What we know:
homodimer, about 0% strand, about 200 residues, mainly alpha, 2 domains, 9 helices, Tetracycline Repressor, domain 2, Arc Repressor Mutant, subunit A
Amino acid sequence: MPKIVDRAERRREIAGALLRIVAREGVEAVSVRSVAAEAGVSGGAVQKYFSTKEDLFRFALDMTSEFLEQRWKTLDQSGNLLDLLLRLLVEAMPLDEQRRAEVIVINAFTARAAVLPSWAEFIRTGYDELAEITAQYLSKAQSAGDVRDDLAAGDLADAVLALTDGFANRMLTSADPAALLPSLEASVRTLLAPRVQSSGCGRR
Amino acid sequence: MPKIVDRAERRREIAGALLRIVAREGVEAVSVRSVAAEAGVSGGAVQKYFSTKEDLFRFALDMTSEFLEQRWKTLDQSGNLLDLLLRLLVEAMPLDEQRRAEVIVINAFTARAAVLPSWAEFIRTGYDELAEITAQYLSKAQSAGDVRDDLAAGDLADAVLALTDGFANRMLTSADPAALLPSLEASVRTLLAPRVQSSGCGRR
Lengths: 204, 204
């Protein structure tokens, strides 16, 4: 099926061009013309591969999740699940050009979703899925004894997502983003680490 | 000085019109023409009161901080400082039209700051000031015994700001924003509450 493969590849190239424009100049710089120029194709080609601009934006946003998932797969998955979670979170922080571009894009999408109901629905679904996956992960970590189990996994997941978003956002405009990493790590550990049992006073 | 007062008031009206447009249609809908129409003045009047569009944006962003400060002043300031902090944080959440507009505006500014160095500087200064004020507050709360003192006030401030931003952002596109409040409250309390002393096993 060379034709289908080619079509998928071409769509990725065009969406990649959109992401570069958003990361460099903001979401308002996106037009069929600017994306075509960045991708090195004609405006007609952009329209052939994406029937609407919204279609193109959604595909591009999905691509940022994929990038993150791919990086996660390269991480050492062994050992303590809280440590692994922290390694995952650092992968989502804007600490190099690629990750910076992804955070800018997600940010721009969220800002736009706030004033466009159809985008809000799309962003909301993404958030809900991420919260669900995070809660499942935390529940597993609770069973393994790597994360406190006196709070619901769902509440902990909401907190972890909020911390991740908040720190990523602040790093975007920070003069030294990496300087915020210790605070991120301390927050997540403080929030999630198993409670120390009040042992040492008699038996249970 | 009626003239000066009038000038200040007119600037606030124009900036208020900009904020309404951003909250309703996004930052890309802002132009001298659209702001003038929303404010019910001429384009020339907008340019008379703000020499550049950037000037107008900055003034408008400062106004959102003022709104928040005004609401904070109306809160009961007595009692436990951790409880008071939680009441302050809820005031920053997008739970009604006014607060929703403010979060949308701050979001749009942050997204834009990511691709405009002059805006980044401005947003960064705002973040740093807020982090400083929050750390001072937390330090006072630590001295009062209302907040844990085994972690640095500065790190706790970073965490509180990140949680606030992250939850506010997620509420923007959430179908039921208020449903996230218990998670916000649980996160902040878990992170900040004084550690229980391991008492009950003999005397100290």
